[in-house]
Amino acid sequence: MKHFKTLSAYFEYMLLPQPEHPMLSVLSAIGDGFLPCPKESSPPITHDCYSISLKKIVKGNLNYGRTKYDFTNGALIFMAPRQVLQWDNSVVFEQKGFSINFHEDFIKGTELAKQIKKYGFFSYTVNEALHLSPKEERLVESIVENIKTEYHNNQDEFSKDIIISQLSTLLKYANRFYERQFLNRKELSNDLLTKFNEELEVYFETGQLQEIGIPSIEQLANKIGISQRYLSDTLKQETGKTTTEHLQLYLINEAKNILLKPNKTVSEVAYELGFEYPQYFSRLFKKKEGISPSEYREKYRMN
C-alpha cells in the first residue's frame, strides 16, 4: 500500500495542483466552476494529512476505510492521517464544494492538535458522514471562504494562527451539527440498539461465546456494518449508556437466567459467559446489581 509522508507528494500522486503552502491546501468551488479532478482510480493509499471536504456532486463508488460511500449532496467528510482511501474509474469527480487538506505537523504544538483527536467524526467510516442542512452548509462555506482568503494572502507571522483559529471554529460547528444529526435520527438510534442486541443473541445462540469468548465492540459494529465509534456515539446519545455498558447489561441478564439453575456454580456461570476470571464476573455483577451472584441466587431461589 502506498503511503505519502508529505502533502505535496500526495497531491502529485492525485494529479492535483500543488499546494501554495507545504503543509496546507485549500481547494474551493463554492460558487461557479468545479473542483480540480484527481486521477481516475487508485488502489488503497494512506497519507499523513487531515482532510475536511464538502462533496456536493459526484457519482460512482469511493471506498474510505474500505467502506463504500454514498455521496449525498451536502455531505461533509472527515479523514484523519493514515486512514485508507481508494476509488475506481466508475467515480465521476465533477463536484462543487471544497477540500481542505493539512499535514498533521501543521497543527503540532497548538491547542487544535489536542482537540482534533477528541472529534469522533474523524474516526467514522465515510458512509456515516455529516449531512448538512442548507443553512449549515452556508455557515460552513463562509468559514472556508475566510480560510481560503488567508491561504491566498501573502504569508506573514499571523497567517498560521488565523488559519488554525478558523479551522478550530469549523470543527466546533461540525461537532454541533453532528449532535443535531444524532438527535434527529432517534429512529436510527433505536434500530441500532435492536441490531446490536440481535447480533449478541446470534453470537450466543451459535456457540461463538464458548468458542471465542466475549465479543469486542468492534466485532459487533462490523456485523452491523458501521464503525465502532459511530455505534458508541449514537447509543450514548440516545440511551445514555455506552456500547460496553449495553454489552455488560446483556451478559448480566444472561447470567441471571443461568444462576437460577441449581447445577451451576458461580465460576461455571462466569466461564459459560466467556469471562476468563470468575472474580471479574462477580465484581461486575455486584457493581451492576448491588448484590453478588451468590446472593442473587439465594434471594431469588426463595421467591
From TrEMBL:
<protein>
    <submittedName>
        <fullName>Transcriptional regulator, AraC family</fullName>
    </submittedName>
</protein>
<dbReference type="InterPro" id="IPR020449">
    <property type="entry name" value="Tscrpt_reg_AraC-type_HTH"/>
</dbReference>
<dbReference type="InterPro" id="IPR009057">
    <property type="entry name" value="Homeodomain-like_sf"/>
</dbReference>
<keyword id="KW-0804">Transcription</keyword>
<keyword id="KW-0805">Transcription regulation</keyword>
<dbReference type="GO" id="GO:0043565">
    <property type="term" value="F:sequence-specific DNA binding"/>
</dbReference>
<dbReference type="InterPro" id="IPR018060">
    <property type="entry name" value="HTH_AraC"/>
</dbReference>
<dbReference type="Pfam" id="PF12833">
    <property type="entry name" value="HTH_18"/>
</dbReference>
<dbReference type="GO" id="GO:0003700">
    <property type="term" value="F:DNA-binding transcription factor activity"/>
</dbReference>
<feature type="domain" description="HTH araC/xylS-type">
    <location>
        <begin position="198"/>
        <end position="299"/>
    </location>
</feature>
<keyword id="KW-0238">DNA-binding</keyword>
